[in-house]
Write a structure and sequence with these properties.
The protein has 324 residues and is an alpha/beta fold. The chain is built from twelve helices and twelve strands.
Length: 324
């Protein structure tokens, strides 16, 4: 009897729960499921692994002699393709699109309402049992009829646009290659009109992936172009926005507030001036972390692993150059 060697599959993150490996073992008898939740374990066990579920670094890739497929548990693969040896290889990378979209779009709408109604400040007043109606006089911003600029009209951007219908806002976007444009987007421009988007946006929503084109693109100059009293919401990647410039412009009240769910370096440094600003909402890259997200991400990997073991083409293969 021929002893068929099992394909080795490494689960290198507990992102979708510690029970996931057990689920895979029960479902895929023809695969050897290896758990490696520390870098040391990954480095020691990666040698003849063919599939890794997680966010491998350059050293992991260098040690992986038999790797065929990197399954990114989330949407953004930028933290994987930042390593040149991975980026230049012929190893396929897949992601899990769509799993984060609903809750992130909800988070953006919640941020718009929270910022314009100064919920941060009201929460502090509540803790002090302070009732001061006058302090909020003429400091609340109406959303209706304002202009919303969506930087990145991918799945998240389109879901945000859908939710804006009820606010009767004027909506514009910048995206070099949108797959579709919602009917309530007045115009969608290419990257060359990013200055124009900033000039007209009372709310600038950063929902683009981080690429060579978008990295640091919302810089001090472009933030300064925004109308006085505007707001910035960072929902995708922090590397796109100059955080120090944003803090400076909030201090001078040129920009009234910001909601930040992603920062250039995570966790955000305790010395960042953003922590000390009154009308800034900071969440720890947590806007998408619903039970539904984890279940969808588990199911996407299970479906793709079934395809891999059956020698079928994988779904959701990414372009390593563009990062999407």
């Amino acid at each position: 009897m021929i002893n068929m060697k099992k394909i080795k599959v490494m689960i290198a993150t507990d992102h979708v729960g510690m029970e996931f490996a057990k689920t895979l073992r029960n479902k895929f008898q023809n695969a050897e499921i290896i758990e490696a939740y520390t870098k040391e374990d990954v480095y020691n066990l990666i040698d003849d692994v063919q599939v890794i579920f997680g966010w491998p670094d350059g050293k992991t890739f260098e040690k992986a002699k038999n790797l065929k497929w990197i399954a990114c548990p989330g949407m953004g693969i930028d933290k994987i393709v930042m390593y040149e040896n991975i980026k230049k290889s012929n190893v396929e990378i897949t992601n899990a699109p769509g799993t984060h979209v609903t809750s992130m779009a909800d988070h953006v709408i919640g941020s718009i309402v929270s910022l314009t109604h100064r919920f941060n400040e009201a929460y502090e007043d509540k803790k002090k049992k302070k009732w001061d109606t006058e302090k909020y006089s003429s400091r609340i911003t109406e959303i209706t009829k304002k202009t919303v600029g969506i930087y990145g009209l991918g799945a998240i951007g389109r879901e945000i646009a859908k939710r804006l219908i009820g606010f009767d806002t004027k909506n514009y976007a910048v995206d070099p290659s949108p797959s579709s444009i919602p009917s309530n987007i007045q115009e969608c421009w290419g990257q060359e009109k990013l200055d124009e988007l900033c000039k007209i946006s009372n709310f600038l929503i950063v929902s683009a992936p981080v690429t060579d084109q978008t990295r640091n693109s919302i810089n001090r100059h472009r933030l300064s172009l925004m109308p006085k009293g505007s707001y910035v919401i960072v929902i995708s990647r922090g590397e796109i926005v100059d955080e120090l410039a944003l803090a400076d412009l909030i201090k001078t009240s040129h920009i009234y507030g910001a909601s930040i769910d992603a920062t250039a370096v995570e966790p955000l440094s305790k010395t960042s001036p953003l922590w000390r600003l009154e009308n800034v909402i900071i969440t720890p890259h947590s806007s998408a972390l619903t039970p539904e997200l984890y279940e969808m991400r588990r199911n996407i990997f299970i479906s793709n692993l079934d395809r891999f073991l059956s020698n079928k083409n994988l779904n959701y293969v990414c372009d390593k150059v563009t990062g999407v």
